[in-house]
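Data deposition worksheet. Section B asks for the primary sequence of the deposited chain exactly as it was used as input, without tags or linkers unless they were present during the calculation. Section C holds the resulting structure in token form. Section D is free text for depositor observations; keep each observation to a single sentence. Incomplete worksheets are returned to the depositor.
Section A, Depositor: J.P.
Section B:
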Amino acid sequence: MIDVEIFQTSSGKYTGFRMNGHAEYAEYGQDIVCAAVSALVINTINSIEQYTEDSFESSVDPETGTVLFKIKDMPVGSSSELLLKSLVLGLNGIQDEYGKKHIKLRIKKQEG
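Section C:
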């Protein structure tokens, strides 16, 4: 299962996420859930880097499927916030379609 922890401030703004695991929906190379989640995550990180001024930290461990992404500057800029909201929307859609057996989203409240 892919476990996604979305970081959110007490005021409701998204600040990043941690994702780990594998969907195990299908065999390696055929897993459409993993492919969809990977595309959304990579696109979000690339878009924030390309189209916003927010600085962030990120790390990837391909063996465990772990991706950590955090905006460093607070408050989060409106463009980054929109891109993170879009990521959450897409991930929720995948969870709704394929079930919590393959992907589970959780919100982690943080100060800010």
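Section D:
The mean pLDDT is 94.
Helices lie at 32-51, 78-98.
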